Amino acid sequence: MDILLQQIVNGLVQGSVYALVALGYTMVYGILGLINFAHGEVVMVGAMVALTMTQLLAASGLPPLVILLIALMTSAGVCMALGYGIERIAYRPLRNAPRLAPLITAIGVSIVLQNLAMMFWGREYHAFPALLPHSTHMLAGAVINDVQIIIVLVALAVMACLLLLVHRTRLGRAMRAVAENPSAAALMGVNINGVISVTFMLGSALAAVAGIMVSANYGIVHYYMGAILGLKAFTAAVLGGIGNLRGAMLGGLLLGLIESLGAGYIGDLSGGFFGSNYQDVFAFFVLIIVLIFRPSGLMGERVAERA
Amino acid sequence: MTAANNVLLDLSGVGKRFGGLAALSDVSLHIRRGEIYGLIGPNGAGKTTLFNVVTGLYQMDDGQFTFDGIAYDRCKPHVLAQAGIARTFQNIRLFANMSALENVMVGRHLRTRAGIWGALTRNAGARAEERAIVKRARDLLHYVGIASPHQTLAKHLSYGEQRRLEIARALATDPKLLALDEPAAGMNATETESLKALLQTIRASGVTVLLIEHDVKLILGLCDRVAVLDYGRKIAEGVPEEVRRNPAVIAAYLGGEAA
Amino acid sequence: MRNVPDSLLRHDKRHAWIAFAALAIMLLALPFATDALLGRGWVRIVDFALLYIMLALGLNIVVGYAGLLDLGYIAFFAVGAYCYALLGSPQFGLHWPFWIVLPLGALLACVFGVLLGAPTLKLRGDYLAIVTLGFGEIIRIFLNNLNAPVNITNGPQGISMIDPVRIGGFSLGSTHELFGLTFPSVHLYYYLFLCVTLLVIFVSLRLEDSRIGRAWMAIREDEVAAEAMGINTRNIKLLAFAMGATFGGAAGGLFAGFQGFISPESFGLTESVMIVCMVVLGGMGNIRGVVLGGVLLVLLPEALRHGAGPAQHALFGKTLIDPESLRMLLFGLALIVVMLVRPAGLWPSTQRRRELSPDEDVVHQEQDTVYDSSK
Fold first, then answer.
1. How many CB atoms lie within 10 A of CB C42?
2. Distance from CA of C233 to the nearest CA of A (A)
3. Pick from A269, C34, C94, C252: CA 20 to 30 A from residue A18's CA?
């Protein structure tokens, strides 16, 4: 069954990207209890900035890998600044406001980012240059190319680093403290605002990495790419248990697999009535089903409502 | 049978765990009709947990819960409110952007019936019901002694009045048991004194009162019987004077927080 | 800063009547005045404004009263519109009468609302927002793809030649002579939409000041306390959801009959967000605010479309920003700014205004999370 294997490989690659974006949602949610609705747009900005950098450097004669690194650095920097700015402008003033308020500003931010991107980069699809080797390999009957291998490896590496950061460093401890109880953390001398800003910047840097990975994989960049990607990554975070880093990774990979297998087999299962054009529906069904049956996600803990 | 009829709330062997932590274990107590029953204990003793079990916010893991002769198991708060248990919250939870009057009117929700049809047509029945709701709400605001205009938004009331408004809102549900979570918290001596008078009036009107309080003086001066919780267990129960001399209670308080 | 002079609040009954009469005459004359001054195209825009106001008022019940953020509201509009279109167009050769198809669409939307709401309404607010968003997308994807292998929705091409609204033998799709005046189709739809909008306003006002309305607001303010007061929060929220969906479905049917053509493109996330904007910007929970929000958000983009292009040409000699993205950009900014500066919206409810007295002994509750979990 090499089709099955192929779908699994595709699912894992796609899932790695979801997982990286999901980490951004989950980190912010873990600390603030807030869905950073604009996170998907940060991914898009990351991809767009990287695109511009590669175009600028295309004539420089630098080796492709160096160009890619420079593009990565730049877009991570831009995204971090963006993440910091979003938190300062749209979320921080609303910390004690009703829940709906930051959610609405977040929607506002994502609309603004989308339309700014459309003004800068236009409505059209851009080709993302192939800076990474694209040779393909056969893996037990499935085809996988270098870019896809790199995506999975980079995702794993980034996740490992993040886990180390959160569980083994001073900063990570401060983050966990703020997530647990912000006022107590503040009393213990943790700079809450600082920790929150850093969390947003970290999440945004991950978004930049994810943005470049998506673009490299598909070879296409578009101003609207962040919306659906963000939604799916959020689904992944919820699936794994929002607020839980390992959960986000697991959720991302699972969602990638579900989508890819679902799209591959829905035609057979429904007797040809539904086709792979329903692929995007899976994520939403998964989201609804998870929220109904296990709202705390696969790895989440049940949290009792405070009285 | 007469003894059983005299008991309004009967808890036996109630346990509640959060993860591996036992917040309550094997707590049994019964509250008699018409009494003011106090629940005290050091911080973290499980008072609020027990309170949340009684009002349905938490579901107990073990034990039995009988209220007014009917067993309740895993019931949602609104079912218990329907049964006749009304509560206030330790950190006031009013409907902040609704007026004082509307807050109390919401309390009448479960004793009234008008639905969408009544709201749209405003037929005679719906109008009469609405008038009755308003009248009852105004009466209750006077009853608990809120002097501010009834149109004042709840969030603009003074602290003491917010506490009273919570009591009025709870009374609007026609409770058999009024459960108060630290009603005197943050009050000065005068306010506490008038709260005490209010609670005595409420009891005199036939409503049973369950009271969690830190203010031991208030508890001793007001309650007919008191239970003491420590580490999720009931360590003493009885009339206040007796409980005060109980060595286990003294130890719990001296070992914990001096109250 | 927001103190309103007493004179404004003191309502003189006679003045109120005069204002009411003036408003009525203005509303009745509006299509003719618009037609004469700005042209027929603008009457159409006014009709659309009314449709959007209906939608915003429907969503206001869900978001403004009950505090449930629904980001997929346009799906109910789509359900109503497709129900009307499928039963009243050459697509299946069915031409059911308007007075059956429209209520059916509203009912179907209501059923969808309950189906979506029943399992999800126990979720916390922000989850609900995402789920509804996903639901809206699911509906759109289905509409887009249900053309093969069995053609139901005609896919991205949409359905055309939908029957106009016909009441008895009176079709709103053609010009009529009445009382010595000529009423073109857009004018007739205007009056129909005006009537329906006024009906929706009436219903909203009645609900707002009722036992059910108070229960919705109690849930919006503090769900735990509402439940402790004996409100069956799930059912009451479901009721809000179903009511909102019903209005959305009805508006959808009217839209299909008015336009004569519908396609999945009209029911995207952008449209959902735009309706949320109307409710939020105008003033959540306040009907006048919501109407204002609807009017502004339909008319301003049109004005931009007509004004921004030429203005940019005059200033820079070319079009720097296309009006469509300028419009969306302004929406986004407006959402942010309004939430930060005027969280109650441009036109907060009268009660709030009355309450914005200098009485400042507000008790601040202690916070134990960064974001207040109780709200």
1. 18
2. 15
3. A269
Cα–Cα distance, C150 to C131 (Å, whole number)? 28
Q: Does A287 touch chain C (CB under 8 A)?
A: yes
The pair phi, psi for residue C166, each rounded to 5°, is -130, 115
pLDDT number for residue C82: 92
Which tokens hold the place of B205?
């009107």
Kindly give, in sequence order, each residue whose CB lies less than 8 Å from that of residue C220, ignoring residues fewer than 6 positions away: C65, C66, C67, C285
Band of residue A276 on the pLDDT scale cut at 50, 70, 90: low
Q: CB distance B93–C222 less than 8 Å?
A: yes
Residue span of the structural domain in which A55 resides: 2-131+139-293
Residue C222 lies in a domain: yes
Taking only the tens place, the pLDDT of each residue in B133-158 is: 999 999 999 999 888 888 889 989 98
Q: In chain A, which residues have their Cβ closer than 8 Å to the Cβ of C333?
A: 108, 112
Which has the closest alpha carbon to C325: A225, A112, A125, A115? A115
- Which tokens go with A69? 């690194």
Report the C-alpha gap between B179 and B84 in whole angstroms.
10
Catalogue the E-assigned strands of chain C.
88-89, 94-95, 166-167, 170-171, 176-178, 181-183
pLDDT of residue A307: 28
Q: Is A303 on the interface with C (CB under 8 A)?
A: no
Residue among C229, C237, C241, C353 with most chain B CBs within 10 A, to mutate: C229
- Taking CB atoms and an 8 Å cutoff, what residues of chain C touch B87? 228
| Number of domains forming the structure of chain C | 1
Tokens 């896919």 correspond to what residue? C155
* 3-state class (DSSP) for residue B84: coil
CATH number at residue A151: 1.10.3470
Count of structural domains within chain A? 1
- B109·C215 Cβ contact <8 A: yes
Q: Do C131 and A287 touch (CB under 8 A)?
A: yes
Verify whether the Cβ–Cβ distance C370 to A31 is below 8 Å.
yes
Q: Is residue C291 assigned to a domain?
A: no
* Mean confidence (pLDDT) of chain B: 87
Q: Do B106 and C214 touch (CB under 8 A)?
A: yes
Looking at the partner chain, which of A97, A115, A280 has a beta carbon nearest the beta carbon of C343? A97
pLDDT digits (tens, 9 = 90+) for A209-249: 999 988 888 888 888 888 888 888 988 888 888 888 888 88
Contact between chains at A304 and B58 (C-beta distance less than 8 A): yes
* Cis amide prior to C164 (ω within 30 degrees): no
pLDDT per residue rounded down to tens, chain C (375 residues): 444 455 555 556 778 888 888 888 888 878 778 877 888 888 888 898 999 999 999 999 998 898 888 888 999 999 999 998 888 877 777 778 888 888 998 999 999 999 888 877 777 767 788 888 888 888 888 888 877 767 778 778 878 788 887 877 777 777 777 787 777 888 888 999 999 999 999 999 999 889 999 999 999 888 899 999 999 998 999 999 999 999 999 999 999 988 888 888 888 888 888 888 888 888 778 888 899 888 888 887 777 777 766 676 666 666 666 767 777 888 888 888 888 887 777 776 655 444 443 333 333 333 333 343 333
Question: What separation in angstroms does the CA of A57 have from each of A65, A66, A68, A69?
Answer: 12, 10, 9, 11
Does C372 touch chain A if contact means CB atoms closer than 8 Å? yes
**Neighbour-count burial of C49, counting CB atoms closer than 10 A to its CB (0-12 exposed, 13-18 middle, 19+ buried):** buried
Tell me if C224 is assigned to some domain: yes
Locus of tokens 């080797």: A133
Test mutation, A29, A284, A289, A294, chain C, max C CBs within 10 A: A284
* CATH number, position C112: 1.10.3470
B48 touches chain A (CB under 8 A): yes
Candidate from A33, A118, A306 with C-beta closest to C371: A33
